[in-house]
Amino acid sequence: MGSKRFLISQDRVLQYYSFGNGNRTIVMLHAQGTSSESYFEVAEHLAKSSKVILVDYYGHGGSTHNADLYKLDVIGNDVYTLISSLGNKERSILIKTSRLCSGLKQRLRHSEA
Fold this sequence. Notes:
The protein has helices at about 40-45, 70-85, 100-110, and strands spanning about 5-10, 10-20, 25-30, 50-55, 90-95. By secondary structure, the chain is of the alpha/beta class. The protein has a single domain (about 5-110), classed as Rossmann fold. Strands 1-2-4-3-5 form a five-stranded mixed β-sheet. It is globular. InterPro entries: AB_hydrolase_1 (IPR000073), AB_hydrolase_fold (IPR029058).
């Protein structure tokens, strides 16, 4: 599970992490002010049955830091391009909420205890 870099263009790179290899792909986008690392625990659990992709927004992690790219339409198009290049876009689920991630982490901790 190391980070990977996806070249959108000469001046635009998205950093992402890939876990698992199931038929279903789950793409997780972090909240502002955090990074994909906040989803590692949940991604490792979900990767038992699915392929999980964690993407860092522009300005976070190893993705390009350029304020001109911090727009919903830009990140939306570029994340779609990344997902399309990795395959399985027809069977992808997009998760974008830190509350859901926090709830999943708590559930995982209680079920393993």
